Amino acid sequence: MATKHILIVPGDGIGQEVTAVGKKVLDKIAAKFGHTFTYDEALIGHVAIEATGNPLPDESLEKMRKSDAVLFGAVGHPKYDNDPSAKVRPEQGLLKMRKELGLYANLRPIKLFDELLGASSIKPEILKGADILFFRELTGDIYFGEKGRKNDGDTAYDIAEYSRYEVERIARKAFEAARTRRKKLCSVDKANVIETSRLWREVIQKIAPEYPDVEVEHQFVDATAMLLIKDPRRFDVVVTANLFGDILTDEASQIAGSMGMLASASVGDGTGVYEPIHGSAHDITGKGVANPLASILSAALLLDISFGMKAESEAVINAVDQVLKAGFRTRDIADQQTPADKILGTEAMGAEVMKHL
Ligand SMILES: NC(=O)c1ccc[n+]([C@@H]2O[C@H](COP(=O)([O-])OP(=O)(O)OC[C@H]3O[C@@H](n4cnc5c(N)ncnc54)[C@H](O)[C@@H]3O)[C@@H](O)[C@H]2O)c1
Ligand SMILES: CC(C)[C@H](C(=O)O)[C@@H](O)C(=O)O
Ligand SMILES: [Mg+2]
């Protein structure tokens, strides 16, 4: 029986819709297992800019620091996507949150529910049994280096930077995780070209002997992009830099069937933030069709990682599994065989999951 304070940060677009469902699941878990979860909400992204002019107001950051965990939705708005000159942008709020909270490790499990074998565009016989855990470094790289324009704005630059320390701390987390799984670690870089990648590889090679039980493989990111689709089962734990991890995990979402299935945990020095890997998806915002399972599975990660509530977390994953077994789908994971009455909207899918909790 525990008392925990959870901050709900829905952000923009479908972030609002899916996070509402994630929160309901947390509520149900608290009731079922006799915990007391208290909640507050905070602004981030476009909604925060509209309300305060700031994509991450100090008040939001303060609330995050004081919470036991954060359930986050997404940020982003087409207004900024199509205006490269906008100086204040929703994504700045997300990056600031990650930096300020020291969330250097982003865990992105690529878990394929067997029932969704047919939802992917990859052949079932290639996919069956795929189970990958990505460790994406989250507070360094080209995202956070100096950037700007020169030559009267005609030339732009973004500097990618990594310190030995930054590489080592994410690498150690990945090695430790590999030890609890199939003991394979694939480190992804572009060391044939990029200096930060050469440092990355050097650090992994240096600490690898401390984990003799873990088999280490180094891959170039272009090859990884290909191998993920060709033979996803060859991967166990993957560790990579911020930008490569962002791109490879969107690609890997197709192994799980949809962006709407992929949850993540951003952890590091302080409060953990749990978030779907998808964005604000304005193409479907307000239509009530967004898949809430990524948010629900993010809530499961929150229970497990921040609260150490293994049984509670498994109850959520099991409920999702049951709902998929019963044949229910949101539009993004439905296929030609899915009967129309099994295709549910965001809230109805959440309600089905709740029935199994
Ligand atoms: N973590 C974040 O907050 C985050 C992540 C990615 C993109 N973004 C932002 O989101 C905005 C839109 O970006 P984008 O279109 O490239 O990426 P996106 O992830 O929002 O959408 C990509 C595609 O996947 C679909 N999709 C995503 N989540 C879904 C769900 N839960 N259910 C069903 N379908 C889903 C969308 O409809 C869209 O077709 C941009 O402003 C971008 O900066 C934010
Ligand atoms: C919105 C953007 C800044 C973000 C990123 O690139 O990290 C997103 O794509 C993600 O994967 O969380
Ligand atoms: Mg991304």
TrEMBL record:
**Got a GO cellular component term for this one?**
cytosol
Annotated compartments: Cytoplasm
Enzyme Commission code: 1.1.1.85
Reaction(s) this enzyme catalyzes, per UniProt = (2R,3S)-3-isopropylmalate + NAD(+) = 4-methyl-2-oxopentanoate + CO2 + NADH
- Which residues are tagged with the site Important for catalysis? Y143, K190
The protein's predominant localisation is cytoplasm
Matching entries from PROSITE patterns are given as:
IDH_IMDH
Q: In which pathway does it act?
A: Amino-acid biosynthesis; L-leucine biosynthesis; L-leucine from 3-methyl-2-oxobutanoate: step 3/4
Binding-site positions, Mg(2+)? D222, D246, D250
- Keywords of this entry: Amino-acid biosynthesis, Branched-chain amino acid biosynthesis, Cytoplasm, Leucine biosynthesis, Magnesium, Manganese, Metal-binding, NAD, Oxidoreductase
Q: Where is the signal peptide?
A: none
Class of this enzyme? oxidoreductase
Which GO molecular function annotation, any one, does this entry have? Answer: 3-isopropylmalate dehydrogenase activity
Q: Where does substrate bind?
A: R98, R108, R136, D222
Extract the SUPFAM superfamilies matched here.
Isocitrate/Isopropylmalate dehydrogenase-like
Keyword field contains Manganese: yes
Short name of one Pfam family for this protein?
Answer: Iso_dh
Subunit structure as annotated in this protein's UniProt entry: Homodimer.
Role this protein plays: Catalyzes the oxidation of 3-carboxy-2-hydroxy-4-methylpentanoate (3-isopropylmalate) to 3-carboxy-4-methyl-2-oxopentanoate. The product decarboxylates to 4-methyl-2 oxopentanoate.
Q: What is this protein called?
A: 3-isopropylmalate dehydrogenase
Tell me the lineage of the source organism: Bacteria, Pseudomonadati, Bacteroidota, Chitinophagia, Chitinophagales
Encoding gene (name): leuB
